[in-house]
Amino acid sequence: MSSTFGTVFRVSTFGESHCRGVGAIVDGCPPGMLLTETDIQPQLDRRRPGQSAVATARNEKDRVTIQSGTEQGKTLGTPISLFVANEDQKPGDYSEMAKIPRPSHADYTYQMKYGIRASSGGGRSSARETIGRVCAGAIAEKFLDETYGIEIIAWVSSVSNIGSHEPNLMTISRTEIDQTIIRCPDRKAAAEMEALIRKTKEEKDSVGGVVSCICRNVPAGLGEPVFNKLEAMLAQAMLSIPASKGFEIGSGFAGTRMKGSEHNDPFVNKGPRLGTTTNFSGGVQGGISNGEPIIFRVAFKPPATIGRQQQTADFAGNETILEAKGRHDPCVVARAVPIIESMAAIVLADCVLQQRSRFP
Question: pTM for this one?
């Protein structure tokens, strides 16, 4: 089950970076929902490689095909099979790395776990695996929008030591975010981020960053205590994304510097429901959504595969120098934005369907 995520809305991804194709099987999607490839493709286009100068140069169309689970544009309630072909493969770029594990990549750990690995492109540890997640997430997002009007918006909030001003969380949109290639709505910070990434790419190096996300119109009551708390499921989803290294929700680590009297979110009457005057909880209390926007952040490390020479060792333990070839992102955060939105949608769709089973 290592490639399956979810309890009721279940997603299984398949495929390696340089095999014939990648995709996902989605089980648990309710029947009767209108669904075609045009509902899925926009998020794939935002994730695909080769879309800007700050991303990998690998050129893939990433066109999705729905192979099963729908008829005449409607879901049947049966498993939905989604497939995207790998077209621009260059496994020859990885011939040197067949004998040398890349520093901080998964080459060594996969070899130790399975005794074999996909030597080209990182196989299942490649970000190419996330195509299946984005396909499934687009389906989950459509279901959430039609059920509750839930909106999930992510954006780049920092690259290396360049931070941005926080946008208006209640009005920020994907249209606004996509106006810059780095997907940061702060134009001044975005320009500085892009310049840094271009410079880093020229130096054959890489940088990390942070992606923030807000989920609006989430109803109260979602989440399964004790071990499947909503923030715990979101954390698992986000930390399963390649290159992710940190997750925080609401006040996060900054909350440790506050007193309880400062950090508590007082309740107030918001018409049809109770709400809170502040949102240091990030929309989740006791592992259950409280009806306020869910706000979290995900930290991404600098990509491990770089063209700069590195002193390391081969699998036999011999000292060597690795100068990795191939086409790789100098920074992953811009393309991680739709992946984070997709994983958040999968978690929330699963939680909604679990809650529905309790109160049909």
Answer: 0.95
